[in-house]
Design goal:
- The structure holds two protein chains of two kinds.
- By secondary structure, chain A is mostly beta strands.
- Chain A is built from no helices and eleven strands.
- In chain A, a hairpin with a 4-residue loop joins strand 7 and strand 8.
- The radius of gyration of chain A is 13 Å and the shape is globular.
- Helices cover 0% and strands 53% of the residues of chain B.
- At the A-B interface, strand 4, strand 5, strand 9 and strand 10 of A face strand 4, strand 5, strand 9 and strand 10 of B.
């Protein structure tokens, strides 16, 4: 049972445009959410996170939005760059045993020049 | 720091053989995690350790899988006997301890071991 779902396996965007990656979760006990980026032949690297007490967190070109009532979060990348082409994983954790992250299946983003 | 180190980077073996994956976490990190990545299920947590003690192994698929952490700088994930469905990329990650949940400590991932069981 996938508690964290990324329903779009891939997304193609033109350079300079906005990329929007979506993530849905089913467990209402999740209270912290993270996005990781993964390049081929490398391990995932942390990108940005958000606590459930917020609905938005911004870091440069990256913004994560959280809609708790819909159990939905999204990652916005503006403007998109070719170097952003990677697989993006959404992850969630609960207050108890919070070191345990539950990941989604990932979305492959391709930013074309 | 060299980051999380995993070996081997690639492993090809035949069904029924024993496979041992190795991980060296970042020095000073108290937590160590083993993940498996597949297309169908994404990144799955198999087991994690805190101060060398297994905390949660509920993600270990079956008894064929075992993990150990004999000291703070080394961990192994063993599959015996291996099966074709074990083919995946296995990641090790580590993180520091957090006394309070003010900020989720980032997990740092190794480059992974790509396992192919024929």
């Amino acid at each position: 049972d996938q508690q964290v779902k990324q329903n779009s396996p891939s997304l193609s965007v033109q350079e300079g445009r906005i990329s929007i990656l979506n993530c849905d979760y089913t467990n209402s006990m999740f209270d912290y959410f993270l996005w990781y980026k993964k390049y081929p032949a490398e391990g995932p690297t942390f990108l940005i996170s958000i606590s459930s007490i917020k609905d938005k967190n911004e870091d440069g070109r990256f913004t994560v939005f959280l809609n708790k009532s819909a159990k939905h979060l999204s990652l916005h990348i503006v403007p998109s760059q070719p170097g952003d082409s990677a697989v993006y994983f959404c992850a969630a954790s609960k207050n108890t045993g919070f070191q345990k992250l539950v990941f989604g299946t990932g979305t492959r983003l391709l930013v074309s020049p | 720091d060299a980051g999380v180190i995993q070996s081997p980077r690639h492993e090809v073996t035949e069904m029924g053989q024993e496979v041992t994956l190795r991980c060296k976490p970042i020095s000073g990190h108290d937590y160590l995690f083993w993940y498996r990545q597949t297309m169908m299920r994404g990144l799955e947590l198999l087991i994690y350790f805190n101060n060398n003690v297994p905390i949660d192994d509920s993600g270990m698929p079956e008894d064929r899988f075992s993990a150990k952490m004999p000291n703070a700088s080394f961990s192994t994930l063993k599959i015996q006997p291996s099966e074709p469905r074990d083919s995946a990329v296995y990641f090790c990650a580590s993180s520091r301890n957090t006394a309070a949940r003010l900020h989720q400590e980032t997990q740092y991932f190794g480059p992974g071991t790509r396992l192919l069981v024929l």
